Amino acid sequence: MQRRYVARKGLFKRMSTLRKDLGSKWILARAELASLLSALWSDGYEVIGPVVQGGAIVHGPVRTVDDLPVGIADVQSPGSYRLRPRADAAVFGFAVGPHSPKGGFFPSAVSLVKLRRRADDVEVLAGGPPPRKLALIGTRACEIAAVGVQDRVLLQGPYADADYDARRRNAFVVALQCSTAGGTCFCVSMGTGPKATRGFDLALTELLVPSHRFVIEIGSEAGAILADRLALEPASEADVEHADGVVTRTAAQMGRTLDTRGIKELLYENREHPRWDDVASRCLGCANCTLVCPTCFCTTIEDKTDVTGEEAERIRHLDSCFSVAFSHVHGGSVRASLRARYRHWLTHKLASWIDQFGTSGCVGCGRCITWCPVGIDITEEVAAIRGPAPEG
Predict the structure, then answer these.
(1) DSSP 8-state class, residue 30
(2) What is the model's pTM?
(3) Of 65, 125, 130, 289, which residue is most buried, by most CB within 10 angstroms?
């Protein structure tokens, strides 16, 4: 078996050329994280990952490790989000922010088609620029589950979304196995995390002791090909056990739980529960919950024409079922009250989505709780409708 050696700080360090089978695990030194980013950029990917902007950890271009939120943590609770420094130099020591992969695969506005008048004919122009090659780094298990939900909705039905399909085909996903649970996370309840088991090309688990390093798991052929260009060493049993322990501790730190037993029937059978009036008295109808949700996919269509009448364009925009106009038909809105709109959103998310798409529309990321201005908690609302737990 061939080995190759590279000089590093005056010593010779063996770089393994062992076969990187799917599921195999390796060690990526903290100093080599820059090589991973560099390899993705050199392959023509635009690398998008967590960056600090406007007092939050959002998605943005990541060219160097310094762009990442090194040594920064977040504190989340219903209606509250803030950043704080960590006592260590963890690169990914925070939970999810307001952005999700939906922004890359299902953007807020897409030009579907452009038309131009030509004498007695109409010229059909391309709707917009071709999708860029996108690499996502630091994608959490709940977010990968959300992408799977959107794949089911937008690709596997009788009418696949061509724009979404093109963006997904170009994607490279570097997952992150969670080492920190947010105060509003409940992915364990939804069976979507905190460990990603599929849907990624590479997966990282950050280890801080006794040395700062990452366990990297190969999740696809594309991931194996890229990993061959990195300075990796096979992960030891102790490394793998340490990585598994990180995820196990995170699973025990969930900020919320949601009892999903019979949840579809529970919501269907409680359409007139007084809790809907209670939550409507607090809800602002701002649609923050649907904007930050990684699975919500409601859209509307806008047609616009230039002042000359020579060119026209059709644009798809993200919309929300919390908008009165969203359910407007001849004669008015089907869901004119906040009570009706909140009930529709929660019931669709947790119940009728299962009938439509064979899966829940919630992945337990907790964004709708954190980013609700008045702190409405989806887990609390379901618990209130379910009623007190039986004694004994």
Answers:
(1) G
(2) 0.90
(3) 289
